[in-house]
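4.2 Preliminary Data

To establish feasibility before requesting continued support, the project team ran the inverse folding procedure on a target of 155 residues. The structure was first converted into the token representation described in Section 3, and no sequence information of any kind was made available to the design step. The complete token record follows.
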């Protein structure tokens, strides 16, 4: 299934060093997750307007072993159509939002980190139905229309 909402990139494209839909945790219901490798501290933005429903940014622990899975920091935002976007592996104490905050698309919410079960600094981004946590949806991305060039008409 695909998202009903259209999502914007949660990270500035010029800061991304690699994008992958394949990773150590991208199996089963997490198959539609996307990883954006970027330097630690890179700003993370809300991909769509919504309300913050969960925040964890109290961990400074991470590593390649699955034993670190519960040490990951994250933010969850509820959007229209009962879709939730989740931003994982955020930097220790970098959340710019709290539960109940209304956020706007493009608003900085956190920074890229390397917490939890993680191989390198990156943002693990996914969207799932509100009542089906981690049953990821294929993300439909907002595509900007190309700028129209002004034409000069010579009469």
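Position-by-position output of the design step:
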């Amino acid at each position: 299934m695909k998202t009903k909402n259209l999502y914007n990139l949660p990270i500035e494209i010029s800061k991304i060093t690699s994008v992958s839909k394949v990773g150590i945790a991208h199996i089963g219901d997490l198959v539609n997750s996307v990883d954006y490798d970027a330097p630690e501290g890179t700003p993370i933005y809300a991909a769509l307007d919504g309300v913050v429903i969960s925040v964890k940014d109290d961990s400074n622990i991470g590593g390649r072993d699955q034993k670190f899975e519960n040490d990951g920091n994250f933010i969850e935002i509820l959007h229209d159509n009962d879709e939730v976007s989740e931003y994982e592996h955020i930097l220790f104490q970098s959340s710019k939002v709290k539960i109940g905050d209304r956020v706007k698309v493009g608003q900085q919410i956190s920074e890229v980190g390397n917490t939890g079960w993680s191989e390198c600094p990156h943002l693990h981004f996914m969207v799932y139905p509100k009542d089906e946590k981690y049953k990821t949806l294929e993300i439909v991305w907002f595509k900007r229309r190309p700028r129209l060039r002004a034409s000069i008409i010579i009469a």
